[in-house]
TrEMBL record:
Organism: Streptomyces benahoarensis
Domain Formamidopyrimidine-DNA glycosylase catalytic, residue spans: 2-130
Pfam families, per database record: Fapy_DNA_glyco (PF01149), H2TH (PF06831)
Family of this protein: Belongs to the FPG family.
SUPFAM superfamilies: N-terminal domain of MutM-like DNA repair proteins (SSF81624), S13-like H2TH domain (SSF46946)
GO MF, one annotated term: class I DNA-(apurinic or apyrimidinic site) endonuclease activity
UniProt xrefs under InterPro entries: FPG_cat, FPG_N, H2TH_FPG, Nei2_N, Ribosomal_uS13-like_H2TH
Entry protein name: DNA-(apurinic or apyrimidinic site) lyase
Top-level taxon in the UniProt lineage: Bacteria
Top-level taxonomy: Bacteria, Bacillati, Actinomycetota, Actinomycetes, Kitasatosporales
Keywords: DNA damage, DNA repair, DNA-binding, Glycosidase, Hydrolase, Lyase, Multifunctional enzyme
Main enzyme class: lyase
Length: 189
């Protein structure tokens, strides 16, 4: 599963390709969004939150996606052959005059009001790569269950948003701590 840093990179690429541009093509290839059309709307920004992508468009709407294990977004120029998988795996196509973003194998794709984003990301803990990173809050959240194994606590997105297995292992290694060590037994959190 892509970790937070990968999602931040994807968000930056999508933002650079689409922000400030009017969508001239919108295909959301999931049944519940089959009639949704964002064409004619300008993309305001694309922001990551942990492992979630929030593509905000004018009119107070957000296209929320999550890559889970093997979802991907690819950006193409007009006329360029799309790469990323077979056509039946495409879940989203967002095109401007200059770029087309194609979402492959997106297990989570939903259109929500921007004002309702907290419904999908409000439970997340501080994001180490986010502008709101608060190490004290992250530590406080980790220590709320002192008997919980460190490795398990690090993977809980309510404690720290965007941490996956790779960073869990790296953090335990840097700390010199077993992932099975209860959080409350860390020598100097």
């Amino acid at each position: 599963m892509p970790e937070g840093d990968t999602v931040w990179r994807v968000a930056r690429q999508l933002h650079e390709a689409l922000a400030g541009e009017e969508l001239i093509r919108c295909e959301l290839r999931v049944p519940r969004l089959a009639t949704a059309d964002l064409s004619g709307r300008t993309v305001r920004e694309v922001v990551p939150r942990g492992k979630h992508l929030l593509l905000r468009v004018e009119g107070g709407l957000t296209l929320h996606s999550h890559l889970r294990m093997d979802g991907a977004w690819r950006i193409h120029t007009p006329g360029e052959r799309w790469r990323g998988g077979p056509a039946h795996q495409i879940r989203a196509v967002l095109g401007t005059a200059h770029r087309t973003a194609v979402g492959y194998r997106l297990p989570v794709l939903e259109l929500i009001r921007t004002a309702d984003e907290a419904r999908v990301v409000g439970h997340l803990g501080p994001d180490p790569l986010g502008p709101d990173w608060d190490p004290e809050e992250a530590l406080r959240r980790l220590l709320t269950a002192p008997d919980r194994p460190l490795g398990e606590a690090l993977l809980d997105q309510r404690n720290l948003a965007g941490i996956g297995n790779v960073y869990r292992c790296e953090l335990c290694f840097v700390l010199g701590a077993s992932p099975w060590l209860p959080v409350g037994q860390l020598p100097d959190p």
